[in-house]
Design a protein that fits this description.
This protein has helices at about 5-50, 55-100, 105-115, 125-145; strands spanning about 120, 125. It is built from four helices and two strands. Helices cover about 85% and strands about 5% of the residues. It is an all-alpha fold and about 150 residues long. The chain is elongated. Strands 1-2 form a two-stranded antiparallel sheet.
């Protein structure tokens, strides 16, 4: 492999890494926004129930559920996009390690070998269960607010 091919390989690796990093960063920002949204919804729910505005309280609960659904859809899309880049990073790191005869450059593969597998419950990731539970609780709280509290 000549010097120009190595430079092209380094540029491709940098591009793939930036793609991966961008998607993961956006996913973390999305998670922070979800926490902010849920805090606002929790405060709005408390105020509406205290003011005996139970209809509004139920709507706030449904808005919280919609926020969780929106987060779940967008975070799944971002994770899939980041995974595409992770595969490219692994391949490019392997090619660069071969070209430079440096096995220590296979960082992605070495990290993946030591990473714990995701926690599963009944065949699904724990995060998916938390999302489903959050939606169920929000919808149940809306109906509770509408039917039991007044």
């Amino acid at each position: 492999m000549n010097e120009g091919e190595r430079e092209t390989l380094v540029v491709a690796l940098d591009h793939a890494w930036r793609w991966y990093e961008n998607r993961r960063s956006r996913a973390m920002t999305l998670l922070q926004m979800l926490f902010g949204w849920l805090a606002i919804c929790g405060a709005a729910y408390g105020v509406s129930v205290q003011a005996d505005e139970f209809g509004l309280g139920g709507i706030v609960c449904l808005a919280a559920a919609a926020g969780v659904i929106g987060y779940d859809v967008n975070s799944a899309r971002l994770r899939a996009s980041a995974q595409l880049a992770a595969e490219a990073v692994a391949e490019l790191q392997g090619r660069l390690a071969d070209a430079l005869s440096m096995e220590t450059l296979r960082l992605h593969q070495r990290e993946a070998a030591h990473r714990a597998s995701p926690r599963l419950l009944l065949g699904h990731e724990l995060g998916r269960w938390m999302t489903a539970l959050s939606i169920i609780v929000s919808v149940a709280l809306a109906f509770y607010t509408w039917l039991v509290l007044p």
